[in-house]
Design goal:
By secondary structure, the chain is α/β, with parallel strands linked by helices. 52% of the residues lie in helices and 25% in strands. The chain is built from 12 helices and 8 strands. The strands form 2 sheets. Strands 1, 2, 3, 4, 7 and 8 form a 6-stranded mixed sheet that branches. It has a two-stranded antiparallel ribbon with strand order 5-6.
């Protein structure tokens, strides 16, 4: 049994070895020299005497080296903008090959890999410089669209060489010019009947704006306090107001029905021939089913105003409602006329509805969902 298992494992290892070797050969044939090198190196790490991988590595590495050097020479002569980026990428590929070969002791004895760290660093500096200078040029031209393009170039420069020059400050400067700034005013509630608080709704709106401060890359939301602190001149001002609502509108409905027991039950006794005998008959009861519904609803008015012209650019009203209810019952007559469910209902007592503040919170929840969805969709195009 043990011998069979050993043969089975040996067969699997052999198959995997043959597959790896075939894959390396296939990569070599289709001109994917980097992949051939990596596969050969992986195999030689496990088996330094694997002849086929030795041959593949010796053939593939010089071909990969020359391929990248040819690409570099061609890109360096190019007049295309940002041509230093493919140069840097090619040097990066060469250094990855170098690292792979260096990580395999037997591979080091087969060939001498070349490193290009200094060349890669210089190419990255040149590539970052191209992006940085283009960003500065666009910033100098002015305008929101140019600032957005500049921001993208500064981001790219920072990705090529992290913290290149003062790119962080340039990113902040470009974003400040590129962003579309919106102040969202406090939600107002006007009620002569109730002292209602907008705290719950306001907190949820504020949380949404904080979490989605940039619904797209260049849209920024501010609270009135934040806008005042930085002396902001916004592009839009959003005003939110509950301008029509009812809280606690109560309706009580009662349905009365006469019930008759399904079967005859003992209702008393009678004397027959001097003996008392039970008397059976159907019994009745009058059941009152009660349902109290407390309706609350409201409308939130959203107005978007252009700050510079004071012109309203968009308005929409969002409706929400919430119905709280309770059901209970009472009866007169014989309990035995009631079903189990009717008895259960008769044991329930009328409940007090939630306070007005809680009802206000409940009907505002669907309004919040509709409002935030609209804000997200509306500013997605800015």
């Amino acid at each position: 049994m043990k011998r069979s298992f050993y043969y089975f494992l040996s067969a699997i290892v052999l198959l995997l070895t043959l597959d790896a070797c075939k894959s390396a050969k296939k990569s070599l044939r289709r001109g994917d020299y980097d992949e051939s090198v990596y596969r050969a190196v992986d195999k030689l790490k496990d088996n330094s005497r694997h002849t086929a991988s030795v041959d593949i590595l010796k053939e593939a590495y010089p071909l990969a080296l020359q391929q990248h050097l040819d690409d570099i020479a061609r890109f360096e002569k190019s007049v295309e903008p940002f041509h230093w980026e493919p140069v840097a990428e090619a040097y990066t590929s060469l250094n990855r090959l170098y690292d792979a070969v260096r990580s395999c002791p037997s591979c080091n004895r087969l060939l001498t890999a070349r490193s290009f760290y200094d060349e890669e660093k210089e190419a990255r500096q040149n590539a970052a410089s191209d992006r940085y200078e283009e960003g500065e040029r666009l910033l100098t031209q002015g305008g929101r669209e140019n600032a957005r393009r500049a921001f993208e170039h500064f981001e790219r420069a920072d990705g090529i060489v992290p913290n290149y020059r003062n790119v962080t400050a340039k990113l902040d400067e470009a974003y400040e010019q590129a962003s579309f700034k919106i102040v969202v005013e406090q939600v107002s509630v006007n009620s002569r009947t109730y002292q209602l608080s907008n705290e719950y709704f306001q907190d949820r709106v504020s949380e949404f704006l904080q979490t989605n401060r940039r619904l797209n890359k260049f849209v920024r939301f501010y609270s009135p306090e934040e806008a005042t602190d930085v002396k902001l001149r916004p592009d839009h001002v959003i005003t939110l107001r509950f301008d029509d609502f009812v809280v606690g509108q109560t309706l009580v409905e009662t349905k009365t029905e006469t019930l008759i027991s399904k079967d005859s039950v003992k209702v008393g006794e009678a004397t027959v021939a001097g003996k008392k005998v039970p008397v059976y008959n159907k019994v009745t009861a009058k059941l009152n089913r009660n349902r109290k519904t407390v309706h609350s609803s409201g409308v939130l008015d959203m107005q978007i105003q252009d700050f510079g012209s004071r012109r309203m650019v968009y308005q929409e009203k969002f409706q929400g409602e919430y119905n709280w209810f309770c059901e209970w019952a009472n009866f007169n007559g014989d309990e035995r006329a009631l079903t189990t469910e009717q008895k259960r209902m008769s044991n329930i007592r009328e409940l007090l509805p939630p306070p007005p503040q809680q009802l206000f919170v409940e009907f505002s929840k669907p309004i919040y969902d509709r409002l935030t969805s609209k804000i997200r969709n509306y500013y997605a195009r800015y």
